[in-house]
Amino acid sequence: MFNKILIANRGEIACRVIRSARRMGIATVAVHSEADRGALHVELADEAVCIGPASARESYLVAEKIIAACKATGAQAVHPGYGFLSENEGFCEALEREGIVFIGPKRHAIAAMGDKIASKKLAAEAGVSTIPGWNDPIESPERAVEIARGIGYPVMIKASAGGGGKGLRVAFNDAEAHEGFASCRNEARNAFNDDRVFIEKFVEEPRHIEIQVLGDAHGNVVYLNERECSIQRRHQKVIEEAPSPFIDPDTRRAMGEQAVRLARAVQYQSAGTVEFVVGRDKSFYFLEMNTRLQVEHPVTEMITGLDLVEQMIRVAAGEPLAITQADVKLDGWAMEARICAEDPARGFLPSVGRLVRYRPPVQSDSVRVDTGVIEGGEVSMHYDSMVAKLICHGATRDEAIARLRDALDAFCIRGPNQNIAFVSAVLGHERFASGQFTTAFIAEEYPDGYDPAAAAFEDEALLVAVAASVHQRYIERASRIVGQMPGHEYRISPDAVVRLRGVAHRVHVENDGDHHGVLIDGTRHRLVSDWRVSDPVYRGELDGRAFTLQVERIGLRYRLQHRGVRVDAEVMSPRAAELLARMPVKAAPDLSRFLLSPMPGLLREVAVTAGQAVKAGERLAVIEAMKMENILRAERDGVVEQVSAAQGDSLAVDQVILVFAQG
C-alpha cells in the first residue's frame, strides 16, 4: 500500500479523496493555484504545493507541475479526482515514465474510452447497444448540417473529448446544427485542446442512466447497480439518485452485464462509469464510458456500503477486489443534489463572490455533505460553479426525498446566488415525485429558470406565523439592549400585520417563551420554537408538525426561505399597515436600451458594431464564465448606438456591453 499520495485536483473532490486516504493511514499532498492558497483542501492535506496562477491552464492542467510536486514531496501515486487531468492519456503516460502510480485505469483504457468516436466503435464490437450516428470527425458546419439531415433531426452534436456538458449541443434544425457545431468546436478546443466533433441521433423522451463498474488487475469486474441522472440542465446533472425509479431488476442486470462486458474489453482497472441513454420502452444505448470517479459516486456508496475512493486506491496498489457480483448490495435509496453558485432566476447564470455565511446541515448516517469551501472563502470565475454536494439516504425513495428537502431547508449560504431553493422545488414537483421524467424535465418545467421569490407557497400560515414570531424576538432583544426603567417597561403589542407579497394578514401573538399561540386572520395555530436572533436557521413545530426554515433580516423585512420558496415578510403595527397602503408605488427604471452582462465573466466576442442594425434573436456577444460559453442575443429589432466593452474585457454583473438607439 502507498505511504503518500498526491491529489491532482481541488475543491470538494480533493477533500473527498483526502478523507478516505486519511482513514486508510495514507499521507496526502494537495496542489493548489495561487487563487486556492487558502482553500479547504489545502488545509486538510498533510502537505501542499503551489503550482501556478489562478487559471487552470497554468496550474491544474499542467502535468509537468503535478509531476514536479510528486518528486518534491515523495508522493508515490496520484489521484486525479474528476475533470482536469483525470482522463488525460498523456498525463497517465508521463506518470508511468516517472514511476508514479496513477490511481485510475491504465492509459490504454483511457485512450480507448476517452475518445467518444473510438469508444462507440469498440462498444459495438463488444456487443454493447449503441446509438445510430456519424462516428467520424466532421470538418465543417456545412458538413454537419448535411450529416444531421441524413440521420434525421433532432441530433446531438458532441465533442469527441467532451465531458461535463461542455462541447455538446442538441439541434432540431439546420440553423441550430450549423451554430451548434461551431460552439462545440470552440468549447472543446478551449477546455480539452481537441476540437473534433461528431453527431448522433437524439433519443426523444430519454433518460440518462449510468452503471458504476469496478475492476482490478486480476481480471475481476463487477457492476454496482445504476444511477438515475436524468435531472439535468444544459446537459449538466443537478440531482442524481440510486437506484433509478424507472429500472426493473431485469433491465438493471442487462445494463450491468453490458457495462461489465465493455470494461473487460478494455481490461479496465479502477472505478468507472458506463453511461446509457434509455428510451421509454427501456431500450438502452451506450453513450460513453467515463474512466474516472463520477461527481455522483456518493449515492452508489450509500446504497452499497462501499468507499469507491478506497477501492480505487487498493486496485491501484495491486490488490484484488474483495467483493464479487453476488456481494453487491442495494440498500434503500440515496439522492444527491449539487449545490451550485448560480442564479436560477436569471436562467441559471453563474454567480461568484465571497461566502459571507456558509453553514451546511448537520451530517449523520443518512445526511452527508461533500464540500471544498469554508465560510469566508471565494467562489471564483476561474473554476467550476459547484459549492457542495448534499447526499441523503432513506429506506424508500419518498423518505430520501423528504430527508433531502429537510436538509436543503437547513443549508445556509449567503453571498453568491445559489440553487438551493430550485433544487428543493424540483424535489417537491409532482412529476419528479412520480418518477415519470426525462432529461428534458428542467427545460420543460422551468423554461425560464426558477425564481423562488415568485414561487407559490406550500404553507402560507407557516410563513406568517414565523415572521410574526421572529419580529417579536427582535423587538424583545432590542428592549433588553436599550434597558428599561422599572414600571416603565416597553410593552410589546400582540397585534401586528404581516404582509407577504403585498397580501396583508392580521396576526395576534400570545407569547409564552418558546411557545406561541398565533391567531392568523381568525384561525388559531400553535407555534413552538427555541429560535434565537442571529441564527439563520429556524427550527420548530407548527400545530405539531416539525419544520426547518431559513431566516435573514434585510432592513425592516424578514427574508424567509422554505421548500423552494423565498418571501420577504413585512411585519408592522395595524396603523403602519394602514398608512403603507396609501403609499405610491415607484416604477422600475427602463433598462431596455442596454445590453447588460448577466454574469461575471470574460467577454470572448462582440459580434456587432456601432451603427449596425440588428434583428431579434441575432447574436450580439459571447461571454465565457466557469468554462462555459454563453451567447447573448437581441431581444428585439434595433440599432446599436454604442459599444461599451471590448473583446477580452473581464465583465461584472450588469456591466454595460452595448447601448441601443432610442425608438
Give the SSE map.
Layout: E1 4-7, H1 11-23, E2 27-32, H2 40-44, E3 47-50, H3 63-73, E4 77-79, H4 89-97, E5 101-102, H5 107-114, H6 116-125, E6 133-134, H7 141-151, E7 155-163, E8 166-171, H8 174-192, E9 197-201, E10 207-215, E11 221-233, E12 236-242, H9 249-265, E13 270-278, E14 284-290, H10 297-304, H11 308-316, E15 333-340, E16 342-343, E17 349-350, E18 353-354, E19 357-359, E20 367-371, E21 378-379, E22 386-394, H12 397-409, E23 412-414, H13 420-428, H14 430-434, H15 441-445, H16 460-482, E24 495-500, E25 503-512, E26 515-520, E27 523-528, E28 537-542, E29 545-554, E30 557-562, E31 565-572, H17 574-580, E32 594-596, E33 601-606, E34 613-614, E35 619-625, E36 628-633, E37 638-643, E38 650-651, E39 656-660
Characterization of this structure:
The chain has 663 residues and is α+β, with helices and mostly antiparallel strands. The chain folds into five domains: 4-103, 3-Layer(aba) Sandwich (Rossmann fold); 132-201, Dna Ligase, domain 1; 210-223 and 248-334 and 341-445, D-amino Acid Aminotransferase, Chain A, domain 1, CATH 3.30.470; 460-483 and 491-580, 2-Layer Sandwich (Glycoprotein, Type 4 Pilin), CATH 3.30.700.30; 594-660, RNA polymerase II/Efflux pump adaptor protein, barrel-sandwich hybrid domain (OB fold (Dihydrolipoamide Acetyltransferase, E2P), Beta Barrel). The chain has 17 helices and 39 strands. The protein has an eight-stranded antiparallel β-sheet. Strands 24-25-26-27-28-29-30-31 form an eight-stranded antiparallel β-barrel. Strands 3-2-1-4-5 form a five-stranded parallel β-sheet, with helices on both faces. Strand 35 (619-625) and strand 36 form a beta hairpin. Helix 7 (141-151) packs across helix 8 and helix 12 (397-409) runs antiparallel to helix 13 (420-428). The longest helix has 23 residues, at 460-482. It is globular, with a radius of gyration of 27 Å. The chain starts with a strand and ends with a strand.
